[in-house]
Predict the structure of Two component transcriptional regulator, winged helix family.
Amino acid sequence: MRVLLVEDEPTLALTLRRVLERAGFAVDLADDGEEALFLGETEPFDAVVLDLGLPRLDGIGVLRRWRAAGIGVPVLILTARGGWPEKVAGFEAGADDYVTKPFEMEEVVLRLKALIRRAAGHPSTELVAGPLRLDTTSGRGSVEGRPLDLTAQEYKILTYLLLRQGQTVSRSDIVDHVYDRDSDRDSNVIDVLVGRLRRKLGAPLIHTVRGLGYRLEAESAPPDQGALR
């Protein structure tokens, strides 16, 4: 999943970025409010970690403008402003969750994963499709009890497809949600990674919808959708 991290303190920003990337997120970084506002309006993020004390435009201002523009991305506020009035202001501006500094890195990771799951309609930490199970907390997956050995990119793609189970997603959608903007974003690589995922799953779960992209679902796709297994 792709996350926008908005933090102006360089050391904390880099530490958080490394932690989030190790947890399987693709991370874009903004260090001021204006850049954050622009990225949130132009890029398809799955969640945002937003500091409040930002240069050029504060976090509350950024969040209010996103919500006024109809941008509903889940937002986790991360700030040293821990007083109740500040929390009220954050939630009234449209925040989904709030963590105050100092904090445990793992807490941020777990809260982000929960926000993304709930936004996609999956309250449980385990994503399930037929014989496939993926624990988003541990990062471990299995098919009929058989452990899956997934690369980082395979795990990201499988998580994205599971969160959108039953929906057709294009190759460009997958690229936008599993790579940050500085990555080599070649959509042709997606076909290769999906092919490897199919072989590892061993079950007909990921279907090709001709001219549109891929769909993950437990039951076979109808023949007229061009499902390839």
Summary: The CA atoms of residues 36 and 229 lie 41 Å apart. The two ends are 25 Å apart (CA to CA). The longest strand covers residues 2-6.
